[in-house]
Amino acid sequence: MALNFRKPRRVRLQLTTIVGLGFGGFVALAIGLVLALSVTANFQNTFSLLNDKTILSTQSLETQVRTHFQSVENAVIGLKPFFEDGTLSIEDRNRIYEDFSIALQTNTDLTTLAITYADGRRLGVYRAKNGKLWRINSDAPPPGMRDEVVPVLSADSPPTWGPIMRHEVGLFANVSAPLVHDGEMFAVLTAATTMENLSIIVASQDEGVNNTVFILDGNGDVLMHSDADWIQTGGSIAENLPGSWDTIGDPVLAAMGDETKLEEFERASELGIDVSIIDAADDEYLMMRRVVPGFSDQPLTVGQYYLGATVSREVRRLAGSGFVGLGALVISVLVAIWIGRRVARPLRNLARQSERVATLSLQDVEPLPRSRVVEMDQVASAFNAMVEGLKAMNTYVPRSLFIKLMRLGGQKAAEARKAELTILFTDIVGFTALSENMSAEQAAALLNQHFAILVEAVESEGGTVDKFMGDGMLAFFGAPDDQPDHAEAAVRTARRIAAAQMQANETAKAEGGVTLRMRIGIHTGPVLVGNVGALDRWNYTVVGDTVNAAERLQHLGREVAGEPEITILASAETVCRLPNEHSQTQVGEHYLRGRSGRMEVYWLAPTAIDVLPVDEASEAPVSAAE
């Protein structure tokens, strides 16, 4: 009997079932994993954002406080050398009043500037709340100073901050530095600032009714409070300021002793920012604080607190967003990343560019980009306009000249006067022909490189760059600073220029670039130097026949035989003031266009060791005029 075995039936599934089950299972698994991970990720992201906000807001407050106090300390640091080197005499009261008044007018962070003499007398200037400046000349301490709070200093003491001082007109912080001559301290220079100036900073950091900003001194007294007129829990504490944090009347500050530190804010903690939760007045508050040392005898503390409900709502919103699905999750993440970058990037860029402005490195400042956020766009536009204005001012008012004039007494140093100076003119040989084969950008770049060499050489020898004329430069030596060796300084400058330009030519040759030949004319004589102009178009410059003669000497360099790389011609009036010069060759007397009579002219070697051989020196580089 034959057995009939049936083959087992294969399980068959429809394609729609496979795709449906597979895709459905995959989607279900993916969504389940995403939902599970999103809840955790949202909490982590929330605390990360809170960390960033805590760090940014606290550091911003600290930076502004530091900038304010550093501005006061810099005033002491900047004035100290002028007293110690004798530029400012402590006995010249009128000069001290004038310079201190200028300092207070240009630095709104300063309230008082004063000198304390060895006998206890004080001399200085104080700015009242209405902006009026008062002179100080008595034994009585002015606002911001008192004998028992000004630190005891020695000759080698750095600028030292004293304790916060209470005065009938307000709170003051002060910094003092010794004035030393020959190792002996002969007086103390003190700058003070009213703490009311910080109220603007504190108010600007307050983000609304649920945010409060404050500053504590080292004894725990509240110096500044952004909600002094009406605190979050109700009531006013303005009449209690300054006062101790536990008795001033703010329940949130009074509960700081029972706070609970939040460990989730690790990055903030690593930066020295303490973040904690405080229970007060039936509510929770998130508080962040940071200690700022260095601007009092004890460290200050800057801080702020938020109503906890604002933070809780943000946590619940971000946590709930994890249950809305994959699409909403992707959109929310993208939006969060976009917002985070859009908010943080301009702030970081603004801080970076502001640091460059604070150090006057204007050439390194990058323009802030425009923003779709109105407030950020306004900040960017105002900042860029400010930088452009500073660059324009720095272009037309050289910083080195400004510093010299201020050191010598402000406006009086710029008054027009007659003086004997040495004038130096430079010119590039054949630059017009050279530039014909260049683009405008190439010509400008070549000129900028050349002018950088000229300016560095002039300023390194104490000279003053007057102006650039085409491819030439006019500079003078002996003003506004007195410079007895102005003729020697001008010759040293010419040789510095020669050395630097020859080095630049060597580099250009190696790179296949353009090399330059130069003519330099130097003449010494009387000129009119100072402010010349009218109304608001003044220029600190030199005028006179001596200037014209130096320019003609530069033109005379065209008659030098051959094609020398650098030609330096100087008048006899300059050479006779060079006692140690041995690298000159007399080239005879010449008529100079626009001048009557002949001028005795000398050729100067581009380097002091380049002396013409005896047999060649008899052949003058320039033919004497008949």
UniProtKB/TrEMBL annotation:
PROSITE patterns: GUANYLATE_CYCLASE_2, HAMP
Regions that span the bilayer: 318-339
The HAMP domain, residue ranges: 341-395
Gene Ontology CC: one annotated term: membrane
Record keywords, A-Z: Lyase, Membrane, Transmembrane, Transmembrane helix
Enzyme Commission number(s) from the entry: 4.6.1.1
Guanylate cyclase domain location: 422-554
Gene Ontology biological process terms in this record: cyclic nucleotide biosynthetic process; intracellular signal transduction
Short name of any one Pfam family annotated for the protein: HAMP
InterPro entries on file: A/G_cyclase, Adenylyl/Guanylyl_Cyclase_3/4, HAMP_dom, Nucleotide_cyclase
UniProt-listed PANTHER family: ADENYLATE CYCLASE, TERMINAL-DIFFERENTIATION SPECIFIC, ADENYLATE CYCLASE, TERMINAL-DIFFERENTIATION SPECIFIC-RELATED
Protein name: Adenylate cyclase, family 3 (Some protein containing HAMP domain)
